[in-house]
Amino acid sequence: MLRTIRRLLSAMLVLAALAVGASTWFYASWAPKDPPVTPDPAAAAWFADDYAAARRDFLARGDAIAARLSGVERFALAVPSRSGLQGLSVDALYVPAQVAPKRLLVISSGVHGVEGPTGSAVMRLFMAEFTSAEALAETGVLFLHTLNPYGFATGRRFTENNVDLNRNASTSDALYRTVNAGYPLVDAVINPQGPADTGSLANRLFHLRAVALIARHGMRTLRQAVLQGQYQVPRGIYYGGQALEPQLAALAPKLQAILEAYPLSMSLDLHTGYGARGRLHLFFDPPKDPRVRERLEAVFAGQAIDWGSGADFYTVTGDVVGWIGSLRRSGLHLPAVFEYGTMDSQTTLGSIRSLHVTLLENQGVQHGYASPGDEARIRRDYQEMFNPSSPAWRTQVITDSRAMLRAVMDNLPRVAPP
Ligand SMILES: [Zn+2]
């Protein structure tokens, strides 16, 4: 009897070890699939991985627009760095409506610095293809190039202060006293101490630890806890800061003056990293004002909008497009976010991997790396998550953006004024 039990137990142990081994292998070798498109070198050429090169091209295109349209304003907000990095700035280009100021489009990129190459590419595509005097007769456009230039230049999502700009933007200091009640549930797992070591047992078995957390708290609760934003752990991920970051504070009065020249405005804020790889997601926080929802539905008629209420999305505090709207004292602002998916984060596996890549990078920045090999691997995975090098992915981004921007420019003029 005893011998049978022992045999059974050892068989179960072997099976469990096999299951752990197989899942660990599967997790380590998994990668999301590219969209099935033929790479187009002309599309991929819009991408500049280097901040200085992206900025130069933005400024040159801005000069060309200023030469052919009237009333164009350019301004730059310097973002000095403690680390001695030079030439970091938020560059703005304001092209007023050429005939009558009926509506304003605010296109912003690089709120999350490492996502800057895609945002810059899509913005420069718009500058090249959608800025005829005719298209801008009644529509003004404000381009905000790379709101987090430190992050673009160094390949980080967060600012030099470890602040996530998209959790930091608010006209009220009450934001910074927000308590994310779920964050303590995940703090120890997502903000590990000590040098980042990809070979450690905790990292090799990260998927199992994540699955245990999901089993205990549920995916919805965890996703919200991690991604919503937090104001208590300054070295942790998704930290929203204790005050408005300097470039947003400097931008606010200029932005306000331009917004108020129009009765209606709309934001297009460009992001990567969340959602199905190769898909352009319209990811909007559910608006409180039904007039806003109605108009966003009209602008994006026929497109699937995710209002942050589906099982796989989440809501955030301190987001930039909401803040832009709150700068208006009258009129209406339509906040829209484009998310170019990279990691299939709508799946459990993709979301676990996304979190793992994010936390390892922050651990490395905060506590150093166990070895140069760990640093290289962690930085490479982080880049690939937010700025995929795949020509097929980049081609899809440009193709989808061109179609979506066309739809916006066609539909926005039909939207009723407030
Ligand atoms: Zn982003």
Nutshell version of this structure?
By secondary structure, the chain is α/β, with parallel strands linked by helices.
List the helices and strands and how they pair.
Elements: H1 2-29, H2 41-44, H3 51-68, E1 73-78, E2 89-95, E3 103-108, H4 116-129, E4 139-145, H5 149-154, H6 183-190, H7 201-204, H8 206-217, H9 219-227, H10 246-259, E5 264-272, E6 280-283, H11 290-299, E7 305-306, H12 320-326, E8 332-340, H13 348-367, H14 372-386, H15 391-411
Parallel strand pairs: 3-4, 3-5, 5-8, 6-7
Antiparallel strand pairs: 1-2, 2-4, 6-8
Give an account of the 3D structure.
There is one protein chain. With 418 residues, this protein is of the alpha/beta class. It has a domain at 36-180 and 228-342 and 388-414: 3-Layer(aba) Sandwich (Aminopeptidase), CATH 3.40.630. 45% of the residues lie in helices and 12% in strands. The chain has 15 helices and 8 strands. The chain has helices spanning 2-29, 41-44, 51-68, 116-129, 149-154, 183-190, 201-204, 206-217, 219-227, 246-259, 290-299, 320-326, 348-367, 372-386, 391-411; strands at 73-78, 89-95, 103-108, 139-145, 264-272, 280-283, 305-306, 332-340. Strands 1-2-4-3-5-8-6-7 form an 8-stranded mixed beta sheet, sandwiched between helices. β3 (103-108), α4 and β4 (139-145) form a beta-alpha-beta unit. The chain is elongated, with a radius of gyration of 23 Å. The chain binds zinc ion.
Task: Name a few traits of the molecule.
Aminopeptidase; single chain; 8-stranded mixed β-sheet; alpha/beta; 15 helices; about 425 residues
